[in-house]
Structure formats: structure tokens, C-alpha cells
Specification:
The chain is mostly helical. The chain has one domain (about 40-255). The chain has 7 helices and no strands. Helix 1 packs antiparallel against helix 2, helix 1 (about 15-85) packs antiparallel against helix 7 and helix 4 runs antiparallel to helix 7 (about 215-255). The radius of gyration is 34 Å and the shape is rod-shaped. It starts with 13 loop residues before the first helix and ends with a helix.
Length: about 260
């Protein structure tokens, strides 16, 4: 009978297990580093994309602000003329006709402002702010957002005073005589910028006042004054927002190397 001896497998040394563990650890660690690096690269790319979009929004805001400020400053001067007439009421028909025309020219409109907030909203509500790694830029965006809140608050005040004087306007004037002027303005908004001699041609003859009452004149004067003051405040706040927009625009372009 043959006898076979069992084969003897040499026992592995502890250093063998150590190197196996080390290689496994390094493989996992390197994989983690690669994933982390990829995630960082993606986030930096998203950060740059957000800032490029922010630059475009700020450019639009600047253009809109310029239009709003220039238009409303022209309107404020016109309201001054209307207030001057209201402070010196007269009984003759020429005065009443001119007062009626000025009311149509300077209380029918104002220049609103619409800010481009799409990118800012994404940063605020979609967790985008955590991507901004440059503290100065993050602070600048937050300050700009606070300025927008101030603009919105004063815009709400303007709407309130607009509706207040609008009610008094309807009480004082015979608005049936405004039909032709309103149609012309709806067809071409620039009609409100016509010289008085041209705009007057749109107004027919008639009784321009529904109530020739000194108390209503006084109330209308005060209502228009509150409206004009609020409009002036809003216009100045929006003008200061342009400075913030220009500063933030330059800050983002410098920090993220964005060219026009």
C-alpha cells in the first residue's frame, strides 16, 4: 500500500497581509480622491456657469434701470408742473382745460422696473450659494439682493399712492373727455411725451371738472404730491441699485475672469 504525505503549504507572513491591506486601502482611497476631485471639478464648473448667467442678468438690470430712471425723472418734472397748477386754482376754462391735459399727460403712466432675478433665485433656493467659494462675491450678491428688496418695498408704496390719487382724479375730472387721448396713448405710448400744444389737440371741448370744489382740489394736490414724493424716492433707490449692479458686475468678472 502506497502512503502519500500531505503537501505542506507555507504559512503566509504578517507582512503579506499588511501589504494586501495597504494595497486595498490605497485603491479605495485613490478612488475616493478621484471621485472627490471630479465632484469639485463639476462644482467649479457650475459655479462659473452661475456667475456667467449672473453677469448677463446684471447687464439687463443696468439697461432696465437706465430706462426707468430717465423716464421717471422726466415724469417727476411734469408732476411739478401739475402741482403748480393745482396750488393756484382758477375758474376760467383755459386753466381747466390745461389742468385736465396735464393730468392726462403726467398721471396716466410711470416707468416700472423689472429686475432679472432668475439666476439669483436659483442661487437662493436651489442651494447654489454653497457653490460660491469667493466670499467677496457671495457678500456682493447678498447686498444686491437686499437692494432689490428695498426697491420692491418702495414700488409697493408707489402703487398704493397711485391708486389713492387715481380715485381723487376720477372724482375731480370728467373722464369722458379723455377717451381720444387714452386711445392715442394706447396706440403709441410716446404720445404722453408730445408738447402740450400737440397733446391738447386730442382733447375735445366740454366741462372738464365734475366737481369744482376747493376741498377736492386740495386733496388732489396732496395725493399727487405724496405720489410724486414716493416716485422720486423709488427712482433714487433704483438709481443707487445701478451703482450696486455695476460694482457687482465688475467684481464677478474680475474674480471669475469673465470677458464681455
Amino acid at each position: 500500500m502506497e502512503v502519500h504525505a500531505h503537501s505542506h503549504t507555507p504559512r503566509k507572513k504578517w507582512t503579506h497581509y499588511f501589504w494586501e491591506f495597504l494595497m486595498l486601502f490605497l485603491a479605495v482611497f485613490c478612488g475616493f480622491l478621484a471621485e472627490y476631485k471630479l465632484e469639485q471639478t463639476i462644482e467649479r464648473h457650475r459655479e462659473k456657469e452661475y456667475m456667467q448667467l449672473m453677469v448677463e442678468d446684471l447687464k439687463k438690470d443696468t439697461a432696465n434701470i437706465n430706462t426707468m430712471v430717465s423716464g421717471n425723472r422726466l415724469l417727476i418734472k411734469g408732476l411739478d408742473s401739475l402741482l403748480d397748477m393745482l396750488s393756484k386754482p382758477q375758474a376760467d376754462s383755459n386753466y381747466q382745460r390745461k389742468l385736465f391735459a396735464y393730468s392726462l399727460m403726467y398721471t396716466y403712466w410711470y416707468m416700472p422696473i423689472q429686475f432679472s432675478e432668475l439666476t439669483l433665485s436659483q442661487l437662493k433656493y436651489n442651494g447654489g450659494f454653497r457653490l460660491i467659494k469667493k466670499p467677496a462675491v457671495a457678500t456682493g450678491i447678498l447686498q444686491y439682493d437686499q437692494g432689490l428688496d428695498a426697491c420692491k418695498y418702495n414700488y409697493d408704496l408707489l402703487l398704493h399712492y397711485f391708486h389713492v390719487f387715481e380715485a381723487t382724479n376720477k372724482e375731480l375730472f370728467n373722464m369722458s373727455l379723455a377717451r381720444n387721448a387714452f386711445k392715442a396713448i394706447e396706440t403709441d405710448f410716446k404720445t404722453v411725451f408730445l408738447p402740450y400744444a400737440e397733446f391738447e389737440k386730442l382733447i375735445p371741448g366740454g366741462n372738464y371738472l365734475d366737481k369744482n370744489d376747493p376741498a377736492i382740489f386740495s386733496k388732489y394736490h396732496d395725493d399727487v404730491l405724496y405720489y410724486q414724493t414716493t416716485l422720486s424716492n423709488l427712482t433714487n433707490i433704483v438709481a443707487s441699485q445701478k451703482f450696486s449692479s455695476d460694482s457687482l458686475l465688475q467684481l464677478i468678472k474680475t474674480n471669475y475672469h469673465i470677458k464681455d
